[in-house]
Amino acid sequence: MTYRIQRAVVIGSGTMGGGIAAHLTNAGVRTVLLDIVPSTLTPEEEAKGLSLQTKAVRNRIVQTGWDRVVKSSPAALMNKKAGELVQLGNLEDDFAVVSEADWVIEVIVEKLEPKQQLMARIDEIRKAGSIISSNTSGIPIHKIAEGRSDDFKKHFLGTHFFNPPRYLKLLEVIPTPDTDQAIIDYIRSFGQERLGKGVVIAKDTPNFIANRIGTFGGAYAMKYIVDNGYTIEEVDALTGTLIGNPKSGTFRLGDLVGIDVMVGVAHNLYNLVPNDESRDALLAPAPVQGLLERGWLGQKSGQGFYKTVKGANGKEFWVLDWETGEHRAPREVDLPIIKQAKKQGNLAARLRFLVNQSQDRGGKLIADTLLPSLAYAARRVPEISDHLYDVDNALRWGFAKEMGPFEMWDAIGLADGVKLMQDRDIQVADWVLALIEKGHTSFYRQDDGANQAYSPVTGEYEAVPSSALKIDLDELRSAGKEVARNDSASLLDLGDGVLCFEFHSKMNALDSEITEMGFKALELLKDDRWRGMVVGNQGSDFCIGANIFMLMMAAQNDQFDQLEQMLKTSHDLMQGMRFSPKPIVTAPFGRVLGGGAEVSLHGSRMCIAAETYMGLVEVGVGLIPGAGGVKEFVRRIITPAIKLAPESDPTPYLQRVFEQIGMAKVGTSAFEARDQGFVTEADRIVMNADELLGRAKQFVLDLAAAGFTPPAREKLYAAGRDGLAAMRVGVWMMQQGGYISEYDAFIGNKLAYAIAGGDLSSPQWVDEEHFLAMEREVFLALCREPKTMERIMFMLQNNKPLRN
Question: Which single residue of 36, 418, 423, 649 has CA 20 to 30 Å from 742?
């Protein structure tokens, strides 16, 4: 049977249910969100004369839940249009929609009986072949389906999303013994391709994979920290990015999650795993229990491990003192080992160094909390999963870690890790000892270029599954596929005649070496060997803009002739990409700011990750776009509107472009970037960033196969003096209203000049070079301004804009 999810029903509009419904609509799935009917009226409803039969009352609970989703920050919806795909209803009046759904997801109260009752109702009316799943994390999946029809059981499984569903990558799929393998395969594929998830297959055990391992690790560390008197500042300095965790570390993360949630999950797990040899570690230490009793639950209650205090220098983050039970001013962390660890290099080197520094206070904390967690993960296999890669993926995707437990153990060294554990009387799983006895030295290995992981089930190494669309540039580099390289950029052979232009400067900031490599790429494309090119990389962000330090130094040294030439060279590269006779697909993701956005705009097409934050933000450092950004928005927004209606007033379109650039608007998803004009309908949006380069490569091949030809050169609309005056009136009004500073207004007037195409006496149709010349003129003029230099310096020192 062929499965296809076009309509979904989510039952339960709480935080998780609403978030799941939102993310389904992000993926373009029409979704109905249902919840119970209230049993009593609110005072406000009574005052309005409403009754329990009024539709608004009957949908009050689901409407409240959805309103919370729409207002959530960070946003659950990728753009406002996605929310239009959601229909709200209740479980009495609208339950019939279940009969039309391809996928029904239950996200109601964590109690078995209500879930079973709901499943009985669903079983009565669901259409044959529809998929039913539960998002539970604390109730055995197979029990929820007890008593249901054979077809229901065949199509039923657990789908455990992580909160918030849009942002956390992990989706744990939990089949029962009755679940059809075709359903497991389809949901895995749908989750990866349509929802952009990292999918792991978990066994039907308490808390599945990520929360089982993560809860133990967090609870064990918390007890150790309290018992050994480590301060909150010390712990968060040690347990963040230094060891591959999010920068929030241990205690800031606890406050974000909620101390009640953190302790509650651990306590529930304690009750569910009576045979777990380490369950006593799940019980919260007395000081943490004390926070619960006082209602200090973290960020949501205003205080927890941290408390925000208004001090003499502004906002201060005071920390809990374990001895007094009160918050105190933070102290400077005196742990030299942090700097020593950073000098070791990458994460693997840092971990090896830290776990072997047990005589140091910081090293001892890392070794004594990390090693028990790694050993615990091994003791849970194959109880919770048959595959080490699923365990590692679950921890990385569920908690935004750089490495999973077995990857970390390999980094430390398999045998070295065992010795460190045994020295501390930590129980090591029998299968790990057997692995070493066989002469193996790692959990993972490479075999003929393929990644393999050891299987405790078969006692052999097995292939690590990977999407055919996933491309690893470092692996290609290791395989000799790098065609050219300098310090900031490379060209790699992606195969099938597709070249990749990769940035790898610091933060992927644009510089002269990237520009140089770009021209080399255009030259190489002339060879018949190449069918086209992808502009993409695998850094933490696609590109944060130009190297503004280099700009500042040039300006301060009066090197304006060199700056002008640099701008001209940049424009030549962008135009070379735009009019390339072979297709060039840009593949932006993450932060794509300033020059990064301009690079993205100049490909033949864009293949963009859904989670992309794109904007022309140059005004924040006192400049305007200088690599074709103004020209592109004139071309994309203003020119088509005037061509369509030559007698129309251009002011609304001029104002739209002015506000987009002048207010440094950043789209918070690829869909918002499309609404703003960066992304066109001809471009492709990719939900799973892991597949971005592979899909961009395929886009190049599709364009080449379709007989790609470059766009014709066109004339652009220059509004001239009248349009410039209209925009300047807007700038004056904003300054008079106190919304912008005097220098903001100065920059705004310069930007308006560029957008209008200069002080032309009347509107004209001009070539693209005219607008590029405007960009260079204004950009260079702003570089001569002391206040622009102040803005650049402030950004470099503080990583935020100055409004001088």
Answer: 649
**φ, ψ at 131 (rounded to 5°):** -95, 135
Cα–Cα dist 732/430, whole Å: 75
> In sequence order, which residues have a C-beta less than 8 Å from that of residue 626 and are 6 or more positions away?
546, 567, 570, 595, 618, 775, 776, 779
Nearest Cα to Cα of residue 134 among 112, 149, 151, 150: 112
In this structure, whether the domain defined by 210-463 belongs to CATH 1.10.1040.50 is answered with: yes
Distances (CA, A) of 85 to 7, 8, 73, 197: 10, 11, 20, 20
- How far is it between the farthest Cα atoms of the chain? 85
Contact in structure between 190 and 688 (CB atoms under 8 Å): no
Residue 5: other Cβ atoms inside 10 A: 19
- 583 within 8 A of 700, measured Cβ to Cβ: yes
Phi, psi of 448 (to 5 degrees): 55, 40
Joined together, the tokens standing for residue 281 give: 């570690």
- Provide the residue ranges of all domains of the chain, joining segments of one domain with +: 7-201, 210-463, 477-788
Contacts 24+ apart (CB under 8 A), 481-485: 483/524, 484/517, 484/520, 484/524
Instruction: Write the CB contacts of 702 (distance below 8 Å, at least 6 apart in sequence).
Output: none
| Planar angle of CA 167, 172, 175, nearest 5 degrees | 155
Q: Which two tokens stand for residue 570?
A: 């940049």
CATH of domain 7-201: 3.40.50.720
DSSP-assigned beta bridge partners for residue 249? none
Determine the Cα–Cα distance for residues 635 and 629; give it in Å rounded to an integer.
10
| CA-based nearest residue to 590, from 659, 503, 698, 681 | 503
Domain 477-788 has CATH 3.30.420.240: no
The whole-angstrom separation of Cα 671 and Cα 29 is 15
**Helix or strand holding residue 803 (H, E):** none
- Token couple for 122: 């669903």
624 φψ region: left (φ > 0), alpha (ψ -120 to 50), beta (else) = beta
Confidence at residue 314, expressed as pLDDT on a 0 to 100 scale: 77
Nearest 5°: CA angle at 225, between 221 and 230? 145
Domains 210-463 and 477-788 share a fold: no
Of 631, 660, 676, 668, the C-alpha closest to 776 is 631
d(CA 677, CA 657): 9
Say which residues have a Cβ less than 8 Å from residue 61's Cβ, sequence separation at least 6.
13, 35, 36, 37, 38, 90
Please answer whether residues 186 and 410 qualify as being in contact, where contact means their C-beta atoms are separated by less than 8 angstroms. Answer: no
Regions of the chain with pLDDT less than 50: none
Of 113, 102, 88, 110, nearest in space to 37 by CA: 88
